[in-house]
Amino acid sequence: MAQQLKKNQKRSRSQNKDDLKFVFDIESGAVNPVETPEEVQETRELYQDYKSARDVWGQKFQESIEFRAGAQWTDEEKDILEERGQAPIVVNRIHPIVETAKSLLTYNSPQFRSTGREDSDRRTAKVFSDLFQYIWQISAGDEELKRAIDDYYVGGMGVLQAYQDPDADLGKGEVYIKSINPLDVYIDPNAKDVFARDAAHILVTTYMTDEQAEQVYPEYMDIINQSNVHPDESDDYPETNLAPTEGQTFNLTGTETVHNKRQFIERYTRERHHFYNCFEPFSQKEHLYDKDEYDAYTNVYYMKVKTIKGEEVILSDEDSVQEMWNVIEEYGFMFHYRLPEPQMDQMGQPVPQDPIRVPGPEDEMGIPGSTTVLIPITVGELIGLGEIISNEIEETRVRQIVIVGDKLLYQRVMPIEDYPIVPLMNIHLRNPFPESDVRLYRPLQEYINKIRSLIIAHASTSTNVKLLIPRGSADITQIEQEWSKAGTSVIEFDAELGAPIVAGPVPLPNELYKNEADAKYDLEYGFGIFELMQGSHKSAPSTYRGTLVVDEFGQRRIKSRRDDIEGMLNQLAKITIPLMQQLYTEEKVIRLVQPNGTEKEERFNYFSEMPNGDVKRYHDIGAGKYDVVVVSGSTLPTNRMALLNNYMEMYQAGLIDQVEVLKKSELVDIEGVLERSGQMAQLMQQNEML
User: Fold this and answer.
1) Is the pLDDT of residue 484 over 80?
2) CA gap 149, 436 in Å, rounded
3) Cα–Cα distance for residue pair 239/236, rounded to 1 Å
4) Rounded to the nearest 5°, which phi and psi values hold at 411?
5) H/E/C letters for each residue in 380-438?
6) Residue 425 has pLDDT above 90, yes or no
7) pLDDT tens across 529-558, in order?
8) Residue 244 and residue 39 in contact, taking contact as beta carbons nearer than 8 Å
């Protein structure tokens, strides 16, 4: 089944190869032609409805993006300032604050821990933490998370998505994580959950040229070429009245003249599907099957082992069941145990021997009470006898529908119950239109710009003194030329007609400069990022430990933001596990590079021969249920010197070993240090022996 799913999947953010021309009906199992225009029509209607409900928020989002990038004056304000001879100066305090917040929240890569929900899953659970760490590395997760946090601070919402690429890793497939432009995501306006788990639909739009589409959907180009060409995507990326003072480029829509550009819409819908929940009390295993899987499951043979004493054991493990079938072939359905003829060693002592199986019930030579009966029995019969509990239930699954223009590409049912689109909302107002810090503190930034513009205008006026003289007392041209020069100049005038009057600007009050400093502090206070956290020494205590304490207390201001990010990562991990279980069905070896430079290798879905000659599959990640959570606070910064000092103190107290201390150091060749240290210890031990 996993192989078929891999054939039926294709990247983009979702995936399917063979389902393009045929739609698989999950309920009936039938393959139907793709001629279902109602799917396309419904998707486009939802797109228009969600788009109209999001217009205002999308406009504000784009304004916040441009405002943070330095476009902080409107076109009208810029023209007025230039007419007055004033420069539309921008003192951008928001950008460094946002960058500092991002660096604090992503200082370290997130660390993950996994656990199994059942006892049988615990041995494999540790694989998932390494596997998710591996996915994070191959997806450049740090950069994708940083992009999402940037959108979170500036626009109010960042978005991460988990998807499968079955063509990666030489056709074995990989699961990836990526960030999405929030303006490409359309969430049901009625959703109130912070992760939009209660949304009826989530739409993701993408505009691609035919050349780009051929790289993503090479086998679907015949349908793509028949779809209509989208003329312009400017409606999805609104234009603002902010003036790009430094020539920033924010929007290139409407400039495409060479390539055909088409609109792709991915629609995710939560649906209810019938499944069978089966619990085996004797093995403590729980299974969830669809109709076809349940039919195959009920036809599987287990082995019931009964003894003459009334003991009964049901074997469900495939290897154990196969071993019992081999016993049946050799000894029949009933056998007993008998002690073999005693044998003596060279010293005349009896050699202990294992009992041997003998067909049929026990006789006078058999071990009393050793008669054993093997009863092959199907799972369906065990369900009928009540040995296995089976309930028909309804489970939520996410259906993915992909259209291009007016054509349907494919649809599939994903093995997840929550959307693979995980939003990171800032100021959540119980709707999918959150507020951002930039939008909240934009008036303060505009206030700083206006004060600085006034100060510069006053300085410009002060360098151009106005001279009032009686009419006809001097040559105006000569006066303008002389007063425009720097330094001392001599101008003749007729004193009988009156003395010239020099008119200078009124000095600015000191309170004005204080207002600008207060506004900057208010910005930092609002974002929770102070000068000390940005490396400023002005407000730093005079002691080393005092500075560390103040820096640590300052980070408490962003704890709420850290909780938002960790909650989003936990939700993302919850979604990624079923995607990994569906895709990773073959033997796979992953290698992780640790922060200290050491390499860790993990192997799963592999077969190995046991000492008795049986072949067993180890770390089968396709079975079982697991939880992966991010380690709280693992992304926040730590002071390296303070951390190393703490580890040194614990090492001196004998609480930790040398290896843990070296991990926290900045030594490059840790392995070499440990090897030489071991050699020195051996030499010292040899000297003591001599």
Assistant:
1) no
2) 11
3) 10
4) -145, 150
5) HHHHHHCCCEEEEEEEEEEEEEEEECCEEEEEEEECCCCCCEEEEECECCCCCCCECHH
6) yes
7) 766 555 555 555 555 555 555 555 556 667
8) no
